[in-house]
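Memo to structure team: turn this sequence into structure tokens by end of day. - J.P.
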Amino acid sequence: MAGYVADRTFGDPRRWHPVAGFGRVAAALERVTYADARANGVAHVAVLVGAAALAGRRVPVMLATWVVLGGTSLDREAAEVERLLAVGDLDAARRQVARLVGRDTSALDEHGVARAALESVAENTSDAVVAPLVWGALLGAPGLLAYRAANTLDAMVGHRSPRYERFGWAAARLDDLLNLPGSRLTALLATVLGDDHAGAWRVWRRDARHHPSPNAGPVEAAFAGALGVRLGGVNVYAGRPEDRHVLGDGRPPMHEDLARARVLARRIGWAALGVVGATALLRRRR
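Reply from structure team:
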């Protein structure tokens, strides 16, 4: 709980961030472990995630929580996209939203930029806030650091490309597995705390399964229904289009919807803290 409050108060450490250091170590190890084979990817992930879990045995839970959570930084990045769209600076908004998403943002219109930012707020509320809290409550600092290691490796090597199709398989599958409980809790809280409870439940149950990600689908669908907007559709990654399916029945999102999404994300964060905090306290009493 103290670590969550530290993230809400200070955000990420501005210098010498441990996650950035982990990324440098992972990139250096990749030069040794890389081969176009799943077995090499499994070894790469096992070494790095295992080392992170072991390191967590010597790290206070409060510090590990602060380092791993990214809710405040996410909110600040999304707020800047919202501001740029509000003043009509579409080119700057495209550049800003590219800090949040992996898709090509150079040709997005206002709705496309707002959709990209809103989808990032939804997905990363799960990945960078709720899921870490779940693993912290269950396994303490080792769970927090192991989760962040797996999530970082997925971002680094878990995408489908000629280089990482096989080597990144283990990172992608482990990240999918570890995010299952957090994504469902996030979608449930979005349904309960959003503006349209019935709409969020309907869109989640109807549209989430069509999304290529088993975890982003439920979260983005629940946000779309809760806010009454339409998310999903075709994104372009490195020149390759990918259909993410349409999520929701509402209108295309505008910059005003980003403000509503940020409010919903903060509500979800505090509610998730209450749920996992109560779970951890009950386990401690037992």
